[in-house]
C-alpha cells in the first residue's frame, strides 16, 4: 500500500458522512440542532466533469455551467418522502433570486430509469421551473449515483429494505449544494424544512442566499 493512501481514504469517508448521510432523515425527537455559525463551509472542491441529458433533450456538461453560480439538488419524481419539499425550496430560491438571471438551478434525478424526459418535464412544469434557469438532468443510474457520491460528496443509493413501497425506492441527500462560476463547491444547506426547528431552517436558508449573492457579485475570473 502506498504511503498516504489510508489517510486519504479515511478523510474521504468522513467527508461523505458529514456532507450527505443525514440529508434525507429528520433529526430524532428531542434532538437540538447544531450550533449556528455565521459562515457556510467553503471547501472549494471542484465538481469535475459530467455530461448528462436535460429535460429538453439536449446534453448539458459541467462546462456549460461555467460562468454561472448554480445550486444542485437531488430528487426523483415518484418520491413520497423529502423530494417535494426540496423541490419547493428550490422553487422558492428561483423566485427569491429572480433578480440574478445568471444563477442556475440544477436538479439531478436519482431514478433515471423511471424519470424520462416526459416525467421530468411534467415535474418541472408543475413547479414553475424556468427552462432557461432550472435544469433537470438525467442519464444512466450508475453514472448519476457516482457523480452525486464522488463529485458532490452526497449520499445516494437504492433502498434495499424488504417490501419497499412505491416512492421510497431510493435513499439520498436532501442537501442543496452551492457551486461557484469556476465549478467549485462553496457550501451547502438542507433543502428540507424541519418541523421541529423551522427558525433554524429559515436562518440557514437566509445565510445560504447571502452566500449565493456574494458569489454572483464576484468579478468574473
TrEMBL record:
The keyword Transmembrane does not apply. This is SCO family protein. Gene3D superfamilies: Glutaredoxin. Keywords: Copper, Disulfide bond, Metal-binding. It holds the Pfam family SCO1-SenC. Disulfide bonds join 79-83. Residues 26-210 form the Thioredoxin domain. PANTHER family: ELECTRON TRANSPORT PROTIN SCO1/SENC FAMILY MEMBER (PTHR12151), LINALOOL DEHYDRATASE_ISOMERASE DOMAIN-CONTAINING PROTEIN (PTHR12151:SF25). Cu cation binds at residues 79, 83, 172. PROSITE patterns: PROKAR_LIPOPROTEIN (PS51257), THIOREDOXIN_2 (PS51352). Belongs to the SCO1/2 family. One of its GO terms (molecular function) is metal ion binding. It comes from the Bacteria. InterPro entries: SCO1/SenC, Thioredoxin-like_sf, Thioredoxin_domain. It comes from Thermogemmata fonticola.
Amino acid at each position: 500500500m502506498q504511503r498516504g493512501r489510508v489517510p486519504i481514504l479515511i478523510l474521504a469517508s468522513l467527508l461523505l458522512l458529514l456532507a450527505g448521510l443525514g440529508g434525507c432523515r429528520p433529526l430524532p425527537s428531542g434532538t437540538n440542532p447544531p450550533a449556528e455559525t455565521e459562515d457556510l463551509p467553503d471547501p472549494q472542491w471542484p465538481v469535475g466533469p459530467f455530461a448528462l441529458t436535460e429535460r429538453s433533450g439536449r446534453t448539458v456538461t459541467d462546462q456549460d455551467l461555467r460562468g454561472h453560480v448554480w445550486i444542485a439538488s437531488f430528487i426523483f419524481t415518484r418520491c413520497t418522502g423529502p423530494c417535494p419539499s426540496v423541490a419547493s425550496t428550490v422553487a422558492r430560491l428561483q423566485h427569491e433570486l429572480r433578480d440574478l438571471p445568471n444563477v442556475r438551478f440544477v436538479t439531478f434525478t436519482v431514478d433515471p430509469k423511471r424519470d424520462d424526459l416526459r416525467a421530468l418535464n411534467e415535474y418541472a412544469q408543475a413547479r414553475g421551473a424556468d427552462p432557461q434557469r432550472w435544469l433537470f438532468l438525467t442519464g444512466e443510474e450508475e453514472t448519476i449515483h457516482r457523480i452525486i457520491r464522488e463529485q458532490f460528496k452526497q449520499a445516494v443509493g437504492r433502498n434495499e429494505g424488504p417490501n419497499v413501497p412505491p416512492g421510497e425506492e431510493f435513499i439520498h441527500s436532501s442537501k442543496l449544494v452551492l457551486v461557484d462560476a469556476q465549478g467549485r463547491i462553496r457550501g451547502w444547506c438542507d433543502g428540507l424544512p424541519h418541523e421541529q426547528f423551522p427558525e433554524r431552517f429559515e436562518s440557514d436558508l437566509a445565510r445560504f442566499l447571502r452566500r449565493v449573492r456574494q458569489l454572483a457579485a464576484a468579478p468574473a475570473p
